[in-house]
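Section 5.1 Outputs to date
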Amino acid sequence: MSIYAIVGLILIQKHALFLPKILAAPALLMSLCVVGWSGAGILDPAYHALPTVLLVAGCFSTRKGILAYSILVVGIVCLTTYAQMNDWFESNLNDNVNWTGALNLSIILICFALILWGVMTIKDRDVERANRSDSLYRLVAENVHDVVWTLDLDMKVTYCSPSVQYQRGFSADEVIADRFDKRVPPESRAALKERLEFELKRDGDPGVEPARVAVLEYDVFCKDGSRKTLETVTSFLRDNDGKPTGILGVSRDVDERKRMEDTRQSLETQMQQLQKMESLGVLAGGIAHDFNNLLVGIMGNTELTLSKLPADSEAKEFLDQTLTSSQQAADLCQQLLAYSGRGRFVIEPIDLSETVNEMLNLLQVTLSKGIKLSCDFEKNVPPVEADATQIKQAIMNLVINAADAIGAELEGVIEIAVGTQTIGANDLPRVVGNQEFAEGRYVFLEVKDSGCGMDTDTLNSMFDPFFSTKELGHGLGLSAMLGIVRGHNGAITVDSTLGKGTVVRILLPAAIVAPSKLADSDDVDTPYTGGTILVVDDEAFVRTFAESALKSRGYDTITATNGKEAVEIYEAKRHQIDAVLMDLTMPVMDGQEACRRMQNINPDASIVLASGFSEPDLVAQFGGNGTIAFLQKPYMINVLLDAIESVIAAGVRD
């Protein structure tokens, strides 16, 4: 057997391992026949040198190359075999017919036919598989809301799914007819071009994944001229050598998601602002409370000293100045308490339009000559439940700030408007100062100026205590105004444009009842003097002042430093004690708990509760038919004595 026949057998059988199963069996059968005939001397192995070389090259080629070489080898083997068999038959037919050779030739031809049939079958299957894959791809691409597209590296659109019409209003043909960047705003176009150049430049670098994806966010134009923000996942399309030939992208409309994120961010910012204002309110209220306690001693002892000085004393003038300064400090504390929402309010139905009219002359005097003040009052505006004094303070603060925004040397206009407004769900994110503000109908008071306006930072800080854009401002005007509004269960909206002016609108709940004037009482109680007063306060200087003031009116006093001690004293000497003057905030036991226990001991106990905070609503909790009163610190001597005498008189009447 020729060496070529042996090598041919080995390589053909090795080659058969690379062939599809449908071709392997015929190829193996053919190789056995060829080798057998070569060994029998029917075929010349030299003719198989070329097929052998081709088979060797095919073994080191690609899979498609292997299939091509297989067909070529089989064809050459069949042709050479047929030629040799034909020569053999011609030379041996007359002598002795070899029907075995004829049978073998038939087998070779059948095998060749089977191989050709297998090749055609594989080709049909590949075409069918490709068509199925293409149909599935188009089914997915054309039935999702996301837009699937492809570009070449020159930004020319080569494919776009029909969903682009739902997303942007263009048909797929309109998009394919233009360049991709034609319908992209200039700023997005520059960013996309820069990113493409960057990705192409680093493509193929060590450590850079060829199958990487990039997530891009950019704006595009819609057919109606509007803009949308798209989030697109992109990757390169590559040729057989792995070089980029285009870009595949899947784009999603994220406008709604961005709106939701912006809304969430706005709500978070508002919540943080509310928490900040609440914390500052607690701080401001605490400072005011402690400072009011100090002012009790300062103002009270100054009054006592004045009462003991002769009318012509030189020291009297200085003490009067001390008392005046102390009163101004007390007013400052009231502004802090107003910001914290714990200011003292006398609530009654009031007409906002009438309230503004009452202030017009005063407001006009406070403004410079170049500023005009105008009013616009809606008719039939319902009243609001409010403290008239506090509302006037809020209006004054707003008008003064509006005038400062215009400037003393410039001309401008301040407009005050009163009307009604219905607040819906969309309006709630704009309101400031009330976390529990709800939808509904409200009465508004609006102050609009033509001043300098505010930037975002100033707008976010305008209600913070001690924040001021004025060199000599104390920063409590607007913060106190916010506290007043918050204390009336209202809210505020602010609109401002830098260089164009500011609009501040106060929203207050409409009252159910009509405004009315309280009739002056003709009943005048005769002052009651004499008796024993239990003075309860944890601050020694407050106790000392209260004792001195009460003794000046002829009262005897007993003192206690906390509620627990006061209850024990009251229980032991309740028949001796005519009234109790007690602080609300004390260690061990506070004034509220002590008051309840004293009422358990004596339901008709006469008690004056005092605090640096304004807590008038507490009186209603204890009832007492006038035997329970509230006293706001700091207080003057006559106010203290009036409160004591009123609860004692109420107890006597009962």
